[in-house]
Amino acid sequence: MLAVGTIINVSILWFLITLYTRSTNSAESLRETWIVVIGMAIVRLLSHLILGGILGPFTFFIELVALYFLTEKICETSRKVSLKICLWYFLISVFLGLVFRLFAS
After folding, report:
1. What is the C-alpha separation between 75 and 73, in angstroms, rounded?
2. d(C-alpha 40, C-alpha 33), whole Å
3. Which of 8, 27, 46, 77 has the fewest CB atoms found within 10 Å of its own CB?
4. What is the mean predicted confidence (pLDDT) over 17-35?
5. Across 11-35, average pLDDT
6. CA distance to 53, 55, 67, 72, per residue, from 12 (Å)
7. pLDDT at 58
8. Residue range 48-73: average pLDDT?
9. Cα 17-63-5 angle, rounded to 5 deg
10. What does the alpha-carbon distance between residue 95 and residue 83 come to, in Å, rounded to a whole number?
11. CB pairs under 8 A, 24+ apart, for 87-91?
């Protein structure tokens, strides 16, 4: 199940990065996406280890902050574009989470 989640994250981010950066080189945008996803995975691991049980629900917001800085630095986007990517990633993630929980129950 972890592999499916990773593939979904990469797909969402690749779509958003390509859409908002208007990249015509799909190989470059995919490479940037993988760097961002790996960076977010490292942040997710560290935040779960450090914040663990008590502040566990807040780790998603830490991941969004990491996504903002990673897209701004790795993809060399403006502040406005990075915020759009973060906002849409948040909305799509929440929607897919609700849909998956609905089908799981």
Report:
1. 6
2. 10
3. 27
4. 86
5. 87
6. 28, 26, 13, 17
7. 78
8. 83
9. 70
10. 18
11. 88/16, 89/12, 89/13, 89/16, 89/64, 90/64
DSSP state of 75: S
Say which amino acid occupies 5: G
**Quick one: tokens of 100?**
């998956």
Cβ contact 69:96 at 8 Å = no
pTM assigned to the model: 0.84
Q: Is the pLDDT of residue 103 over 70?
A: yes
CA distance 55 to 28: 36
Smallest CA-to-CA distance from 67 within 50, 52, 49, 86 is with 86
Residue with tokens 């990075």: 82
Which residues neighbour 89 within 8 Å (Cβ) at sequence distance 6 or greater?
12, 13, 16, 64, 67
pLDDT tens for 76-86 read: 889 999 999 99
DSSP tag of 1 = -
